Amino acid sequence: MRILHIIPYFSPKMGGSPQVVFQAANQLSQRGHQVTVIASDFGNSDASFPGGSFQVKLFSNLFARWGFYFSPGMYTWLRQHITEYDVLHLHEVRTFQNIAARALAVRQHIPYAVSAHGTLPIIIERHTAKRVFDSLFGKRILDDASKLVAVSPVEVEQYQQAGIAQERIMMIYNGLNLAEFQDLPASGSFRRQHPEIEKSALIILSLSRLHKIKGIPHLIEAFATLVQE
Q1: I need a labelling partner for 204 at 20 to 30 A (CA). Which of 32, 94, 118, 219 fits?
Q2: DSSP secondary structure, 53-92, as one string
Q3: Under 8 Å between Cβ of 203 and 197
Q4: What is the pLDDT of residues 32-50, one digit of tens each?
C-alpha cells in the first residue's frame, strides 16, 4: 500500500505527534508499504529524526512565529503527487496542511484518516480562532474522513462530542518501539549524578514537552500543597 502521512512539522522537538508519525512510518515501511511523510520544515534545523526506512519531504514554512505553519509549496506538491497514494493519514486537526490535503483528497476520491493527537477540544488559547477554523474547515476535515483515530477513551469522547458517529472512530493506542528500551541506564544512576537529593526523598518524573496544556505548574503546586499538609 502507498501511504502518505501529512503533519504540520516533523521534528522531535515538537512533541508527541511527530514521534508517533516517525514510529508508525518506520514500522509500516518495514512491513513492505511505501510510506512518505510530508511536513513543513519548522524545527527541523534544530532537531531532526534519524534516517528511517521511509521518504520525508519538507517544505518551506511561513508564519510560524504566529503559530501558523503555512507551507504553500506543499499544496503544489500535493496537486502533482496525491494520486500516487492509496490512502492519506492527516495528523492534528487545525492546520493548513489538512485544509489542502482534504480538498485534494475529496476531489481525487482518495480516502484519508485523521489523528487529532488531542488537538480537537477548544482549550488553553486562541478560542475564537479555533472556532472560526472549525466553522470554515475543521468540520469538513472531520466529516470527510474515512476514519478518526483516537489514542484513548478520552479522545473517543472528544470525537463524539464533535458529532462523530461511534462507528467512524477507531481507538489505537500509541505504540512503543521496544528496541529503544533494551539498553537502559543502571538503576540509581540519576541519584548518583545528583547527590544533593536526599536518599529518602521521592523523585517524581513528568515526561512531556513544556507547554501550558501539560499542566506542569498545577503539578508543582499540587505537590507543594501535599508537602505542607
Answers
A1: 118
A2: SSEEEEE--B-GGGT--B-HHHHHHHHHHGGG-SEEEEES
A3: yes
A4: 999 999 999 887 878 888 8
